[in-house]
Amino acid sequence: MALTHDAALNIAKVLTEALPYIQRFAGTTVVVKYGGNAMTDPELENSFARDIVLMKTVGLNPIVVHGGGPQIGDLLKKIGKESQFIDGMRVTDAETMDVVEMVLGGLVNKSIVNLINQNGGRAIGLTGKDGNLIRARRMLLDRKGENGVIEQVDIGQVGEVAGIKADVLELMFNSDFIPVIAPVGVGDDGASYNINADLVAGKVAEALKAEKLILLTNIPGVMDKNKNVLTGLTTKDVDALIEDGTIYGGMLPKIACALDAVKGGVQSAHIIDGRVPHACLLEVFTDEGMGTLISNRPRKGK
Q1: Backbone angles phi, psi at 296, to 5 degrees
Q2: Quick check: is 301 in a domain?
Q3: Considering the domain boundaries, does residue 12 fall inside one?
Q4: Rounded to 5 degrees, what are φ and ψ at 104?
Q5: How many Cβ atoms from other residues are within 10 Å of residue 145's Cβ?
Q6: Residues 158, 84: contact at Cβ < 8 Å?
Q7: How many degrees, rounded to 5, is the angle at CA 113 between CA 110 and CA 114?
């Protein structure tokens, strides 16, 4: 059936609106943190994979960093091991770390790779252990004891990023592959470390001086006290919003990750709603966008 005149005009408008962004971002790197609802809804999974393939096809270099917390929790439950959390971080003993590696580096990673490949891409899965991609160090949490003294708490094989081997990823760009990274790092002691996927995505973006860091979340973006989505923010704006309490609670770690990336040389960070089909394309290739953009650019824009 032929398109109606209005439908044809609408498609033409979308394509012509996307053109300047395609031209502007061709050859640049975009790091996407993939998680939350977008990873558990088949329609959203498919639209995400198509977004990544389209980005690669029009000349961008997308990198996917994925989470998998719920999937880890499900498998631990099946083997009769209870998940423990301290300040939102999973306590990770050696047995739990085995499950983390199995789920992140195996089940979840290969599922995303397969999905991208089924949509016409050339994805290849990695953990931070491949090519020493992610060097890690043990994370110690600061907690205030009953006596008011700050104590450091060891929560096992939970890490933070000590370094990223950018040349491993650059090699893949030159071979036309799309890297899909599971956030498992390796320490100087050879041990594996479970690292928050937002942190890994931010550090990968910094190491590659990426054009964009995109964090898919389960909210529309950073909101003011009246629940309006804020965008076009500078790092100074964000610091002020944290100071006055507009940004608080569970949103702080994600914002801190975006802020660190932009301060570390990434051109812009985007916090967008992964529950919306084709959220990545809408944010990158349309005038309006659809989430919160943070950058140090003095002018409006992406």
Answers
A1: -105, 10
A2: no
A3: no
A4: -70, -50
A5: 9
A6: no
A7: 85
Q: For the chain, give the secondary structure using H, E and C.
A: CCCCHHHHHHHHHHHHHHHHHHHHHCCCEEEEEECHHHHCCHHHHHHHHHHHHHHHHCCCEEEEEECCHHHHHHHHHHCCCCCCEECCEECECHHHHHHHHHHHHHHHHHHHHHHHHHCCCCEEEEECCHHHCEEEEEEEEEEECCCCCEEEEEEEEEEEEEEECHHHHHHHHHCCCEEEEECEEECCCCCEEECCHHHHHHHHHHHCCCCEEEEEECCCCCECCCCCECCCECHHHHHHHHHCCCCCCCHHHHHHHHHHHHHCCCCEEEEEECCCCCHHHHHHHCCCCCCEEEECCCCCCC
Measured in residues, the chain has a length of 302
Q: Does residue 15 fall inside a structural domain?
A: no
* Cα 236 to Cα 187: distance, rounded to the nearest angstrom: 34
How confident is the model over 24-62, as pLDDT tens digits? 999 999 999 998 767 878 889 999 999 999 999 999 999
Structural domain count, the chain: 1
**Cα-Cα-Cα-Cα dihedral of 34, 38, 40, 42, to 10°?**
-120
CA 122, chain centre distance (Å): 19
Tell me how far apart the alpha carbons of residues 173 and 62 are, in angstroms, rounded to a whole number.
9
Domain region containing 276: 24-295
pLDDT tens-digit map of 216-273: 988 888 888 878 888 888 888 888 888 888 887 777 888 889 999 999 999 999 999 9
Strand partners, 189: none
- For residue 287, give Cα distances in angstroms to 13, 96, 196: 11, 44, 31
CATH of residue 50's domain is 3.40.1160.10
Quick one: which of 270, 298, 302 has its CA closest to 286? 302
Comparing CA positions, the residue from 159, 151, 99, 113 lying closest to residue 134 is: 159
Is 39 part of any domain?
yes
